[in-house]
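Field: COMPLEX_INPUT
Field: COMPONENT_COUNT = two
Field: RESIDUE_TOTAL = 355
Field: MODE = joint
Values follow.
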Amino acid sequence: MLAVTLAHKNLLLLAFVVILAVIPLFTVADSEFPGADGRAEETILELSPGYQTWVDAVWEPPGGETESLLFALQAALGSGFLGYYFGLRRGEARKKADAKS
Amino acid sequence: MKLAAFTLAVILLLPKPTYAMHIMEGFLPLPWAVFWTVVSLPFVVHGVLSISKKVAHNPELKLLLGVSGAFAFVLSALKIPSVTGSSSHPTGVGLGAVLFGPTAMSVIGTIVLFFQALLLAHGGLTTLGANAFAMAIVGPFVAYGVYKVSRGMGINSALAVFLAAALGNLLTYVTTSAQLALAFPAEVGGVLASLTKFLSIFAVTQIPLAISEGLLTVIIFNFLLAYSPRELTLLKIFSLQDKRKGSVSSDAGA
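Field: COMPLEX_OUTPUT
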């Protein structure tokens, strides 16, 4: 019983997350939704026009494609681990329940 | 044609919404970079000790620690569009803070930030201390505190986790704004004027994202409640839950 309601609850929560992410795509027309970090630079230079960055990034991805590869890898590794963990725990719980009955 | 060029120029020159998740490499003056590194260091050291103590006591918690790290990994890779026309990403540190305590996430959060600085030019090594203070110290401490206070007030665990993760996310951004404002006070109005500037726009951007982070954290927490009662008991998260709901664990496989 719990498993069913759990799935329903989580699907509902996930639906909210998706809705929150999709709404801006329609309400904010002609925006490319650029990353946050670059925006800080602009304001810093605005507040302190003479500011010179004193170090550069050690390494930068050569372009957007490589960057998205690395982000995809990051997400894939993380979700792979989460899937492994919950698969393992769910299997164990099921086995225990079977052994009881 | 002229009109198009003019429009383009206006769009490019218009002040854009500004806020930051991580402070970029080289964008904090040296004294501030050193200051935040020194401030953050003890928390990370405490975190390393607290993690090794917990894991030494209960080696089976290693996997759950991995889950906390993996969750932060996934969430900080998700750049989600927000209502102001910018994207930002959740931090994912709230979950681990509730489970393992705040300084454990200081370690994990700093590791995530380190890799993003090294491989993605996202944040930086000189700004690692400041970014760690915002995302891996303030965020987790707020999340942990909010969770404890909420539970103490009798709020159910799902809502407590939601509030913890969402507020932890929001306060991370407030901290980043404050750090930038301190380093770059406005000529007129000083630190406060800068702070207002950094906060005014990002607050709006960050609210939907904080909500998303709260919801995503509750999803994982629900799974943990169902499938990991043993670990949650070891971490003393489950005891309160147990009394109220009865034997949740026996239903987990059903």
